[in-house]
Batch of 2 targets.
Target 1
Amino acid sequence: MNNAFSLPTRSTGNIMMNVMLALIPGTVLMVYWFGAGIIVNISVIMLVSVACEAFVQMLRQRPATPAILDGSMLLAAWLLGLCLPPGLPLFELIIGAASMSLLGKHVFGGLGQNPFNPAMVGYAVLLISFPKTMTAWISPTEFSQAANAWDSITQATVLDRLRDLERQGLSVYEHTLSPWPWNAINVAWLFGGLYLLARGIIRWHIPIAMLLSAAVAHGLHYWAFPQHTLPPSSMLLSGAMMLGAFFIATDPVTAPSSLKARLLYGAGIGFITVALRSFSNYPEGIAFAVLLMNCAVPLLDRCFVLETKP
Amino acid sequence: MIKESIQDLPGGLALQTPSGAHIDSTLHAMPLQTHYYLPLVNYQRDVLQPNVSVGDKVMGGELIASGVIAPTSGTITQLTHHTWPHPSLTKVKTLTLAADGQDDFLTLPNITLCDDSAEEKLQRIERCSVHGLGGAGFNTAKKIQRVMEHNAPTLIVNAVECEPGINCDDALIQNHSVAVIEACDALCKWLNVSNALLAIEDDKTTAIEKLTQALLAQQSTMQLAPLSAIYPSGAESTLVQRLTGIQLTQGQPAAKFGVLCINVATVLAIHQAWKGLFSAQRILSVTTQDLKHSVNLQVRFGTPIDSTVQFAASVNPFIAKSLNENRASVSVGGPLSGFTQTNDSTPVMATSNALLVGAMPIKKPQSACIRCTDCATVCPVNLLPQELYSAVSAQDTDTAQRYALDNCILCGCCDLVCPANIPLTSWFQHGKDELKHQRAAEQNAVMAKARSEKHNTREQQRALDKAKADAQRRKVAAQRSQSAIDIKAALERVKNKRPSS
């Protein structure tokens, strides 16, 4: 197409590159507190998923290079790597990456065809298959100490801790939690998300709807049982909330098209996340919330035909 | 009916001509050519029957087929299949006219606005072969006739160019602003128009200035409606929506709502037709592929594109330079709607508003759709191109219709922004063609069914009639045989009664 109009044109690779750029600050903070294990996770998953991508392209007799260079698999690998605790056994990483690439994307026909978020498919497979290793996060340490992070005592995250306390029937406030590193990491994701919004890579509908509905749902829960839950303010900055809102739920392939449907989609994810955090056996609910709402996308798309713009 | 404020489009793109672009607004009249090619096809792609045969001498303005006039005087030398300016690059029946150089035209009497009847005025428009000079090449008389059913219609004179690189309407206004306003006023007066707007992009400052002066001088009732330059405002449906808020679906004429949306050059052509001048030429922009240089020519219909471009090159050295570039080609239409022409002697027609010359930009490799919805953001008619694309490429016409494929105006905005470089508009054109075929097939099926049903009832009736006739025949035969038996029996009885000898 003639581009003598000097329109700002984007390419798929360019979009993915911008998202990866926005992931850098949060990733740096995670490495700072959890050690190089994060980098190991991300790199192993990237390598395996790129290998899977090349393998599938070979089977389908299509050129592999453009498929790898569009960055979609690398981005998904990065997101999955961020969700996994450092020090996860190598074969689990390989299984996660392979499920992400093959089950999450290629069985449906590759880029643009998958109904489920590939990174969350990989995460769900790992969480269900290896619940013990998957919930064992090492305690956040300073980078100086993280050299021997492999040996450091594994410790549950804030949300894990909270669940344990709740099970023992203890009040949250009687025990000191140190949510600071997680809060900081969430703020970093938030800034990354704001960058994406400013660049027009994502639109506000999904993240805002998701955070609002999570806040409202959690607020109701907190109002009913203040003893057993975190205050809503710190809830929004705990776990993978910001990462989910700005980087995972906004995946265009698996989100609905029209803006109204996106509001509902985001709200659904926020609500289900809080419901899962509060009432299920899992400490974090984003992955399942995203996957569940992915199921609803075809229906949402059907309901909001021709209502694209506000 | 006109809204207080000008409605903004839900989408569209602000396409700018590159900085430092030089547009030559002088009208360069093309000299008379030796040969003209006149495709026997109308705006609806119906093939026409010629009124003349090979060897006939014709005068300029003579009807050589229904709605087609000779652009000059000369001899018809050939009736062949020839390419015409259409994206399909197909060939249609075409008459070749060898000009005699006299350029004699038939003379028609003047039509005066007050005295002559509406019927006569319409007939004159038809006779002078006035067609929409914007882009669709609609039959103007028919369009006006449809509007005349409404009392006090709204007139929108369209001087919004379709795309960057096309500036023929701008050039026309800069050179003939007074005649344009006169023509608009005449049309208003004739149709008893309640509201008359002249829509033009607000960045055409020279044209707007000239129009304002002309409006003042003529004390015209026309109102200028300067619009921000958003592509595709030049399309009838988008322009009508921007100015009146009425949303037209594809195939729905604005005339249905009492709105006459008509190109500015066409209005002038109507006025000239009343003065006895035939609509045998148009203004055409020849622009370099990078949109930096542009000239405007007055070209007769039927002029080969090749000679048109050569003439433009003789006027402007930059066009000559572009023409000599590597991989240089000529495409008909603007940078978005244009299509590359393969045959040099394809003629200029009423719809040919621009020619682009130079090397075509290299196409970027296409990748998969990631549903980023950039296309939906720019769509001026509120469609979801990404959903339409998945439906059309899967040949699922039902779903495509649910996503309102019919409403797509094929403007090409989505193509421009797609990060995966998917040729969406080509897919939609393909989908529309498929839908058309499917509908035709469905209609054929309905007709065939009706035929077969009729045939069946006919057969049944015939069988019934036959059965009835058979029964009747059998009855008669039975009666007959019965009477034969009776006679025989009677004879027998007589025979028995008679004593044997």
Target 2
Amino acid sequence: MAGVAQGTRTRTDLDPLPPPGPGTGPGLGPGLGVDVERQRARLLALHAHLAREREAALSPAIERALETAQMYLFLALGYTGHTDELFPDELQVPDELRGAQAASPSTDATEARESRS
Amino acid sequence: MAGALAHTVDQRFWNRATQTADRERLDALHLARIRHLVGWAYDNSPLHRRIYNAAGVKPADIRTWDDYHHRLPFTDKPDYVRDQESSESGFGGLALGPEHWQQYFHTTGTTGRFLHEAFSQFEMHKAGTQLCYGLWGQGARPRDSIYFCFDFGMWVGLWTYYWGARNLGLTIVSGGGATGEQRVRHILERRPAIVCGTPTYLLHLAEIAEREGLDLRRAGVRILAGGGEAGLSVPRIRERLTEAWGAERIHDAYGIGEALFIGQSCDVWAGGVHAIEDVCHSYSVDPDSGEPVTDAGGVGEHVITSYTHLVQPFIKYRTHDLVRIDDRPDHGCGWTWKHFPGVVLGRSDFMVTIRGVNVYPTAVENLISEVPGLTHHYELHLSRRDGMDRMLVRAEAAAGVGDLSDLAARLSAHLRNNLGVRLETEVVHAGTLPRYELKTRRIFDAREPGARAATPAEGR
């Protein structure tokens, strides 16, 4: 299964993603415009929904198809100026693995790095 | 795909929101991504952690553009080569291990050392998007077909074009394993909307068609697309291709092996390509001091940070390509992304001093095609005699040109007038020089390795 092959994935520890707030993105508030920001929020929600479906996948075929869908969905996120994560695995790394990789347990990548200056 | 878009969507752009965003918003996005990426690399790439620690820099120190320009160290190809030679994996700068890899590539090895590259599945998807901005702008649409004039190998450039075609929804026709003549016949038979090849090879196919009495213009090809070498942004080459193929559009793509095709033509040709700012940050520096080039029109070394290649991050990476960057282009296409007039103007690490004059081989290459009567086929031969570097420019005449010595004299004069130094020139008959399917080998350096001030590294 893709989750095993990808090493750091999980399908059981995913919490719904928080809605994007003013602290997300490039720090410009609506950044690329209100419409783009709204679409970004909807895409994030859709990503979380896909992640939950992957948890419940009834076959490797479905799981893999949904994983591929998440990759394409992440391309769409990138087009909206999403900067909180740079690739899908960052959205999916579980807390315990994130803690093993990084010195900070913060889930905000930028804040985590700032905390270990 | 396009048919499902709302009528209010501006279909001139692949992604209008970012392609037309103002410079301040784009720079804010870049800074956010760079800060994120520096932290990611520090956490996951031992090479980057070593480089940053050696410089006394932590990710949290990089908060402003001044921090990026002056505190964050550069990275360069030798950093990655040394790392790959000393690491068990055999790869340099790794941040994600083999369990994430989808495909392996290596650079073309112009320096004599391949840089091994690994890409994840997401990275290949994203690499493909890099081509979509330009191809979409040229009028390519889902269900158009694209013909590839290549056998697919280890060079990543072709593969990213293939992934670009997939991402855009094009119908792919492979010319792999075919001869040039067979490819000409395929193209006439399949009538693709787009033909993808290096400029040299596209000209070569036109020669074959002419020799075989076949008219490529009857194939109905709308767009000629390619990259990998200079040519598709050289006016005379564009004219020749347009005439021979009857194409409406010529699409140039500028890439570096480490960050893929990061530059693309727009639909209003202005002599160069735009940086694809959704996938990388570009700026230029003085090659000696490392200081950012700030004067408009100033030539500097291109430095990039890739948002696509994360298995091996490339952050503030010296490409050694000499470029001129217009960071507020206004030639009517609507794109706000930085523009590189003339694309690659030379190589900061490959300069030959001829009788006291610094000569960049790339500059010579660009000048050759400006001489009427010459083709795009040429070779540069470097040698050293009595301690002095010499350069012989061997160029091929167009079919039907009789007086080769006169053409050689005109070439010599054109080079001297533009470079300030006389180079040795030789013009050979049409069809004499070898044709290459991929990146053409044009520079032959016969100097002893120790006598070379620098060697040509990866180019386009």
